[in-house]
Amino acid sequence: MPARESMVVRHLRRRMSIGYEPGTTWRRPVRYVRADGTVGDTPGADRPEGPGEAVRIAFVLPTHLGRYSAAEHQSWLSDQIEQLDDATRALPGALIMVLVGMQWMRPEDEPAAIERLRLLAEVTAAPEGVRFLGLSLPGPGKVSTLNAGIAIADDLGLTAVGWLDDDIRLDPHCLRELVLDFVRHGGRGAVGATKVAHARPYATSRLLHRLKALTNTATNYPHGCCLLVERAVVTGGIPDRYVCDDGFVCFRLLDPEHPDPLHHLRLVPSATCHYEVAGPAGQSRRRIRRLLLNHAIYLADWSYPVARHYFRHILFSGMWPLTDFDSSGGKRRGAAKSAIKWIYFGWFARTAGELYLRGVLRRPLREVHWAEYVAPGSPHPSGHHPLTEASA
User: Fold this and answer.
1) How crowded is residue 76: how many other Cβ atoms within 10 Å of its Cβ?
2) Contact 84, 163 (CB under 8 A)
3) Dist. CA 87–CA 37, nearest whole Å
4) What pTM value is reported for the model?
């Protein structure tokens, strides 16, 4: 029999939920750059023809003008196009739309963003089965780009939506394997690449890399750096309330009453991507706070069975005696994992307590800051190109 939510837990979660009330929206005005370089206020894309069961996917590629130089953006997109062409060759008749979202922060940068998208459309010859569409929109906020892409997928009746972060490196055939696995499972639920972490040349990054390898906190479901999801799961877009895109997909699809609660959330072992862990100490602290706030908000908002499973079996799995003891790697490793999880839980409790207090005082948090924007022409905050050095 499912566990019942106590009155104390219900009170805590309700006040935490009240303690966050965003004052912003992910709905942003978008200008579209089509494959021929023309610019308009509507996508100008036709609904794809073909049988209803045909594979029709929108892959959204969020980035921003300051992320790379023009040449680096060309190289980055060419790599993604090559991967997606590989996927369409494995699935004859499939259609994949590549939606490159180019964000800008200052109104005077919008013309440069449009020119960057025109350049990408012009120099990246999309193969048959892959269509290009550029989206120019104000930032920051990854979810605003995702929602703009989801809106296009909704309008065109596509079957699925995927997205890729612009600071990861994909192994050969990663997207092909991702798409094939999704199709083999009937185009249902969500699939994600298996992530391989690499430390940056900072002490904080190296430390967090070692701790993540030991604890595997919240890593057993598809993450937003490389994800493909059934469109019905995200139709209408991710609500303004949520900053963490993969968290939204996870909580939508988690099924705690099923023998395998993650049966709609699959990691694909043959689809591998590489990413870098954290950065300098200050950047890492801000990132940890963002993560903790996102965990707390989802745990406060969602149904108790889903929140309970996420807390016990995903976020704080192995935190004995509050949750299970993980002896899979031996007792010493299990004890170390438990100790680290308790430290992490202390940080989480502090963040959740802040939301609770804000809820009691009716002074809600209005914004969860997510990404740091880099002005055009400025060096990348890590000091190097993340795509080329991720596996170093």
Assistant:
1) 22
2) no
3) 25
4) 0.89
